[in-house]
Amino acid sequence: MEFRDQAIAARRASVELATLNRAQKDKALHAMADALAAAEAELLAANEVDVASARSAGTEESIVDRLSLTPARIAGMVQGLRDLAALPDPVGDVVRGWKLPNGVSVRQVRVPFGVVGIIYEARPNVTADAAGICLKSGNAALLRGSSSALNTNRVTAEALRRGLTDAGVTPDAVHLVEGGREVTGELMRARGLVDVLIPRGGAGLIQAVVDGSTVPVIETGTGNCHVFVDADADVEQAVTILLNAKTQRPSVCNAAETLLVHKDIADRFLPRALEALGGAGVTVHGDDATRSYSDTVVAAKADEYDAEYLTLDLAAKVVDSIDEALEHIRTHTTGHSETIVTGSRTSAERFAAEVDAAAVLVNASSRFVDGGEFGFGAEIGISTQKLHARGPMGLPEMTSSKYVIEGAGQVRA
Amino acid sequence: MEFRDQAIAARRASVELATLNRAQKDKALHAMADALAAAEAELLAANEVDVASARSAGTEESIVDRLSLTPARIAGMVQGLRDLAALPDPVGDVVRGWKLPNGVSVRQVRVPFGVVGIIYEARPNVTADAAGICLKSGNAALLRGSSSALNTNRVTAEALRRGLTDAGVTPDAVHLVEGGREVTGELMRARGLVDVLIPRGGAGLIQAVVDGSTVPVIETGTGNCHVFVDADADVEQAVTILLNAKTQRPSVCNAAETLLVHKDIADRFLPRALEALGGAGVTVHGDDATRSYSDTVVAAKADEYDAEYLTLDLAAKVVDSIDEALEHIRTHTTGHSETIVTGSRTSAERFAAEVDAAAVLVNASSRFVDGGEFGFGAEIGISTQKLHARGPMGLPEMTSSKYVIEGAGQVRA
C-alpha cells in the first residue's frame, strides 16, 4: 500500500480504536503475541536475510547485533505484548472534573492521540513494542523502520496484523511504512493525518525528524548526562554513584557522560574515583586539573564536553564552584538527567531548581531515570523536550485529553 | 536590540525567573500594572499614531477597532495584570510523587518552559496579557506583535520592563521583538533558545507559524464549531443553545458555525430555529432540505461547511442519521468544540466518544469552552492540538515538568 493510503486507513482505524475498551485491547495484545510466537521460524528466516545483507554491506558488528533476532529475543517481544495487556488502560481516565456554578459538568478525559508515527533504526523489537504500546493507548501506528530490517519488520507487522484480525480488531491499527527516503518525508509532513511523531534512535535521526516535520514531534533520547561531585559529597557515595551511572549499562541515554568535580574535594575524590573507573575499564578524558591526579587520564578535547559517548569513556573537569558546574551544565546539557552528589541541602536545592533537564538527581544514580524503574511497565522512550511529556513516557503519555461537558440546556449569559 | 541578542537575554533571564517565588512574581505583576497605568497618556498618544496610520492605509474598521486603545481598555490591561497576581502559582506544584522500592524518592514538579514566543496580531492588549501570563508562570516572553501596533506595543513593553525593574526582577523577562518579516522567521527557527511558540490570531497566522517553525508550536484558536440537533432533542433547548452558541459573541472561536439537524426532527425544529436565528440577524446558508423550510435561507456553497465565519452567518445541513453527522464533523471539524443536543443517552455517549475535538458538549452552549468560564482566571488561548494542552490553556498549561529524584546513595542493580 502507498504511504498515503496507509495513513488514511490508520486514521479510519483510529476512530474504532478510540472506542475499544480495555478487555478488547488486551485480547488483541494476546492475539498479537500468539501470532508473533507462531511466526518464529518465518521471523528467524527473514531476519537471517537482513543480517546477511547487513554483514555483506560491511555494517558494524554492534549494529548487526542489534538487528539480529534469536528465539530468546522473539520470546522477549512476545512477552512484551503480554505484559502490556497486564497494564492499566489510560484511555477514559478522568484527569480532573468539576461543575461550573450553573451546574454544567466538566470532565477532562484521557483519549488516544489518534495516529502515531514511529521512526526508528535497526532494532526489530521496536516494531512489536511500539505497535503494542500504540494499541494499548488506543492509537493507530505507522511504523517506519530501517530498510536494513525490512524483511524482519515485514514478517513482524504481518503477524501483528493477523493477531489483530484474530481478535476482531481492524488490522489497519498497525502499518509498516515501506519505500525510499521520500516516504519518510511524506510521513513527517502528514500533518492532519498523523497526530504525533516519535523518533527512536540516535541524535542524527532525531535531529532530522525535528527539522523536517510539520507533524508535532516528541523528541526522545540523547543524554549528555553530568555527575557533579560537590565540595562536601560523601566520597564513597560519589564513587559508587559515578561508577554505576557510567558503567552499569554505558550504551543507554541515562548513562553518565561527564564528571564535574568541585576543586575542594578533588584531592580526596579523584584518586579514588580514577582508580575505580580504571578498574572498570573506563577511559577518562580530562582537563589538566583532572590529569594531574593520574597518568591514565587522556586530554579532553573541547568538544568532548558535548559528547554522548555511549561507551566506557567519560569526560571530566574540575570546577571552582557550584556556579561553574551549573554554568557548564547549562552550556552542555541535552536536558536528560543531571546528578549532584552532595551533603549540602543548599547545594541540592539549588541544583534541583536551576538545572533545566527532564530529571535532576540528588545522591542517586541517573540509571533510575527509566520507565521500568519508575514502575511505568512500558516505555516508548525518554522525552527530552518540554512540551507534553518530559522524562520517561509510559502509556498515559501516549494520550491526549478531551473535555466532555454535559448540561441540561445551560447557555452563557 | 537584535532578535538573537533578545533571545539570549531572555534565555538568561529565564534562569532567574524559574527560581522566583510567588510573592516576588506577584509584586512584579503589580509593579507592571502600576507602570502601565502611569504610562496611560503616553500609551494613548502612541496608539493614536498607530490608529492614524492604519486608517490612512485603508485598514478595515473592525481591525482599527481592535487596534484602538481607550482609557477603559488600558484599565482592563492593568486590571488583568493585577488579577494574575491573585491566581495561584503553578510553578513548584508536585504533579505526582512516589518512592521506588529501594527508597529513592521521585517527584514530578511543575517548572516553567523557559522562553515563550508569542506571535500575534493587532490587539495591543495581548502585549500586556501575554507578558503577565508568562511572568506568572515563570517564563521569559518574546512578544512578536503586529507592525501596525508597533508604537503602542513599544510603549507598553517599555512600561512593563520598568515595572519589572521597580520590583527588582530582570527586565529581560519581557522583550518586544521588532523588525521585518525575516525576524519572525528567526523567531520560528530559534530552537534551543525558544522553548515554545504560541501564535494568537487568525487561521492564516497560525498556519504560517505551524509550517515555518522548528520551535514546538501550540496551536490555538480556529473553531468551525458544529451544533448537531439529534432526532429526540428537546426543541426548545436546542433553539436556546444554538442561538446562544451562534449569537452571544459571534466573533470568537467557540461560537457555532455549522448546524446539523437530524431529518426526523427537522419539521419540528427548523421552522422555530430559522425564525429565532432570523430574529437575531443571522443569515443561514443551507442545503436544499434546510432551504425548503424558509425563503430566508441562502444556498450554501460546498466550501462553506469549512468556514469559520466569525460573523452572524451559519452553515446548515439536514442529515439522515447520527452517523452522517459524525462523518460530517470528522470531515470538517477544526477540533475545537462540538455540540450535540439530544435526549438520548446512547447518542450522547457515542458523540462524546467518537468526536475528536478539544471539547465535546452535550446539551450546553459551546460558549462555555473558555478559560474564564472554566474558572482558570487567565487564558493564553484555546489549544486545538493534541500535544501538551488541549482546550483552554491556563497557567498550569504554561509549564513543563521536571522529575526531582532524591536518594541516599542508591544505585541500579
From TrEMBL, chains A, B:
* One Pfam family cited in the UniProt record for this chain: Aldedh
Domain Aldehyde dehydrogenase per the UniProt entry, residue ranges: 9-277
Presence of the UniProt keyword Cytoplasm in the record: yes
Keywords, comma-separated and alphabetical: Amino-acid biosynthesis, Cytoplasm, NADP, Oxidoreductase, Proline biosynthesis
Q: Give the enzyme's EC designation.
A: 1.2.1.41
- UniProt record similarity statement: Belongs to the gamma-glutamyl phosphate reductase family.
Name listed for the protein in its UniProt record: Gamma-glutamyl phosphate reductase
What gene name is listed for this protein? proA
